[in-house]
């Protein structure tokens, strides 16, 4: 039967929109489903909440700015850059204030890094709960930042010998604050003002945010207004009552900054079923590690009886998302799909049960266990756990 | 070499923004505040979200209780049970609270609220005054409950072995399915359609089971002590066993009226065979029973003193207490404002008698 799509369509005859109809471009209306989504029952109020990146619908490694997941504690601060200041105080030779113009005069660098919320996959600690990779793994994005090495700003102020810690503080109504060890601050942190080439989006900290590569997203303080140098950590709310990992014995780990190696198959997945039936099939996913690069990802489609080394494609830089593919001939039988990341330190992504055995069920944060999707004969996928 | 960019911050400018407090007291302003003052500010500015007794409303954070629960299946992480340092409370309340009106509290108000949170967590008595002088002495019970990140020592060796690639296990089975819970958000339109469809179908048993499973299983995220809230309906006291009433002089209508009045008490008190101590003690046998006598409940100093003096909750004593708890007994933990109408008090007492049986 002839394909009715092979016809003279309106767009082949009529004139389309001229330039400037959409001076800041939007995706095709046919892509309107590719958007951030929240889980309403998670939090008390959307002002202090989170939404999720639609990673099931994306490919490559870079996350477009408009769909980078949002998480804020007192809403999105509307900061006028002309009225924004960055202050450095505490154990420094010179307590300083910078305008945005001042910051633009420091040498700057470009780096791609992933930002993952420590609570990503946190709802899955006790078992499969959310049917969609957007919800199980979407508290992540991967962006090219333009920013000033934090080291340069600290050198400008002159960190004193006893200055071993840094407090980063946001200008929002949460006054978001986190303690960062000086070693990390001087290593690879950035004070960034661009993402993927354009100004930070308001929900990502416009006009300036901290970039703390490989470390939990909560530390990447947005709307950065102040850096204080001190001789001890501050033990503020976000590093004591939150973002600490309660273990089985009732003690809790604190300062669990690094994001462990992790991967997930983004397609097929519950929001991205196989719709084409048996035959050549592309399985793809993302992998990342807060400790380095991802030289290898293993994939299984039979629930871990047999594993295959996936094909990596795209840039492989430290503390950034990596893209992997496994191209296979689907015979139409049900699948149990998993991926397993290896990072450049030799760390191998554990199963969820291995993690639970190590930490118990109450950690909430830092769940990097292997995810399983059950794909049925129709190609539909479900979030499951397997033996 | 410095580039000479930026300009010196003046001490006054630093003072405006440098609001952080550290456990060693760095940054703590001069000032003081007492529990009673804190109670007033808290009730006005905090209780709508955090509950009158710090028990949390909706999914807002629980601030009090939970001591000893950190190894439980459902730990309750509060200022009293989990937070290591009191300085964190002061810093955060001053920095970010009240929600939507950050940095509006005076230093003394923050001291008072912090003192009240200690009181709600049974860490201090009702006459406690917190100040810049005694702040360093105030320690929270879980200070030693934290340890540094030891993942690389404890976990890395186990998580860096070369994994199996072929014939890794004989068989595989699915042990858990997300669809059982069905808590995944759908598009609004799809959701509405589904709800409509549900409304048109007679209640399927399977659906009930699913929603129960949600209640049981929905794990908490960092913000959402979902389990607390989810568990609540299960633990709520059963409806008044009106029909069972056999008390000779008891008027069923009055008992029924009393059960309605008791709704005001329910958020804190339970009564009946399955009752447990909550924010307030179990009320079985309260009428004509001795004051301050329920096992396992930590009473206020005032109530303990009254109990020692032999207070019995006779009809008249109880009426007076219920009409104006704080007026009747200064220092009682029961911050309930009281039952205004005499007939409501009579009904409530009738109900309390009846439901105890």
Structural description of this entry:
The complex is a heterodimer of chains A (387) and B (357). With 387 residues, chain A is mostly beta strands. Chain A has two domains: 72-253, Oxidoreductase, molybdopterin-binding domain (Sulfite Oxidase, Chain A, domain 2), CATH 3.90.420; 262-384, Immunoglobulin-like, CATH 2.60.40. Chain A contains six helices and 24 strands. In chain A, the strands form six sheets. A five-stranded mixed beta sheet of chain A has the order 5-4-13-8-9. In chain A, a hairpin with a 6-residue loop joins strand 8 and strand 9 (177-181). The longest helix of chain A is centred in the middle third of the chain and has 8 residues, at 150-157. Chain A is globular. Chain A starts with 9 loop residues before the first helix and ends with a strand. By secondary structure, chain B is mainly alpha-helical. Chain B has two domains: 11-145, Cytochrome c-like domain (Cytochrome Bc1 Complex, Chain D, domain 2), CATH 1.10.760; 242-356, Cytochrome c-like domain (Cytochrome Bc1 Complex, Chain D, domain 2, Orthogonal Bundle). Helix content of chain B is 38%, strand content 4%. Chain B contains 15 helices and five strands. Chain B has helices at residues 11-17, 35-45, 47-50, 86-96, 107-120, 151-154, 188-200, 205-217, 226-235, 252-261, 263-266, 301-308, 315-323, 325-328, 342-356, and strands at residues 7-8, 32-34, 129-131, 146-148, 174-177. In chain B, strands 2-3 form a two-stranded antiparallel sheet. Residues 201-248 of chain B have low confidence and may be disordered. Classes of the chains: A mainly beta (387), B mainly alpha (357). At the A-B interface, strand 1, strand 4, strand 5, strand 13 and strand 15 of A face strand 1, helix 1, helix 4, strand 4 and strand 5 of B.
